[in-house]
Amino acid sequence: MSERILLIDDDDSIRKVIGYMLDEAGYTAETAASAEAGLKAFSAQRPDLVLSDIKMPKKDGIQLLGEFKSIDASVPVIILTAFGTVETAVEAMKRGASDYLTKPISRDELLMTVAKTLKISRLERENETLRDTLNDRFRFASIVGLSPAMGAVFETLRKVAPTDATVLITGESGTGKELIAKAIHFNSPRRAQRLVTINCAAIPHELLESELFGHVRGAFTGAVRDKSGKFEQANGGTLFLDEIGSMPVTLQAKLLRALQEREIERVGDEKTTVVDVRVLAATNRALPALIAQGLFREDLYYRLNVVPVRLPALRERTGDIPVLAKHFIAQFAGEAKVSISRGALDALSRYRWPGNVRELENFCERIVLMRAGSSIDEAVVERHLAAMAGDAVPATATLPEMERAAVLDALRASGWNQSRAARRLGVPRHVLLYRMKKYSIEIESP
Questions:
Q1: Residues in the chain with pLDDT < 50?
Q2: Domain shared by 226 and 170, yes or no
Q3: What range does the domain containing 47 cover?
Q4: pLDDT of residue 384
């Protein structure tokens, strides 16, 4: 469907010429001979763009522009003006017009300005849709959980999200700490700015300082240009420090200073840079125990733990398992209608889920992909649970055996999509490929 353009001008010849140019270019041109007729046409059906003369009897283009913006500010308006009234056109742009064209108008100038304005308008609508989608996805109501334990979490999130308070999110692996961090950001006044995430466990210790704070050219071997760090990239927004318990203690003092002073220094630089960043952190490790071992600074812990949010393990909220399972099954089934029986949900509720919500999500994806029909019954769930238990790593397994099993599990749960598996493991794709080669893991048929 071609884009609709409303052309308003009291000159018959201009309406005919410009209307013809627009129609020939593939647009749908609707014309109006007066401001009143143009306003009526605009109100009846929103066009994609308005071309309006600035000098018209009874009501000029400036007045008309204000009325358009009060009805629907998202519709772009291009002002048509004679050479002697360019200053008036500039005033119109200050009041919200997208651009102006000076009469006599050439075909090329008209079509180029119209195409540019429509493109900008489309991008703005797409960005607005994306923001709305993100806000909907990370609304607190979109986080599944009806148990009292999750109710307490939601209550804390509602209170802390509108503030700039630092939040420390704790919980076992797979409980959804990153989802909570995203929900806090997208429900905060900083939602329009960036949420920058860094996994402190996935980056080699010798590179972590540069990733966080940036570096200047020549700071170390390989530093061939200046580079901004995550703090600068998140300026005005939120920085999420995932797996903060893995940060080397030698770097913690610099992080503490950044949190206290709100300024950072790039590696190899003596100049400080002021940053406006809200910090969220998460860990599956017991930080007080690390403090006792000398592996985590106590002063940094208290700086991060302004508002603690502890996510319960799935075994602590078994009442949420059926709700979560139905949610994941509907998500992975897409357009298909897939049901799950009461017995199957009971079987899922009896399982301990050591990998928490992430393990349940992976399991639901597997049974949806491997299903024989449009329903999932107890026998299907029990069979897949038994197979999963058979793949479990024995308690006496060595660290390499456990690592190999974790890589295999992530690959299988991701349908052998290596990028998705790497995201599940929280490591870069090249690290996953290295582990696959190290443990001689061959790609299986999904």
A1: 446
A2: yes
A3: 4-133
A4: 87
Say yes or no: 235 and 328 in one domain. Answer: no
Same-domain status, 258 and 342:
no
443 in a structural domain: no
This prediction's pTM: 0.63
DSSP-based three-state secondary structure for 435 = helix
DSSP string, 196-245: EEEETTTS-HHHHHHHHH-B-TTSSTT--S-B--HHHHTTTSEEEEETGG
Same-domain pairing of 213 and 303: yes
Residue 356 lies in a domain: yes
Q: Which tens digit of pLDDT belongs to each residue from 82-130?
A: 765 667 777 888 888 898 888 888 999 999 999 999 998 888 877 665 5
Q: What distance, in Å, lies between the first and last C-alpha atoms of the chain?
A: 40
66 by DSSP, 3-state: which?
helix
Number of domains in the chain: 3
Task: Say what the pLDDT of residue 446 is.
Answer: 42
Joined tokens for residue 330 = 């509907």
**Which among 119, 51, 39 has a CA at the least distance from the CA of 89?**
51
**Strand pairing report for 263-265 and 272-274:** antiparallel
CA distance 178 to 184: 10
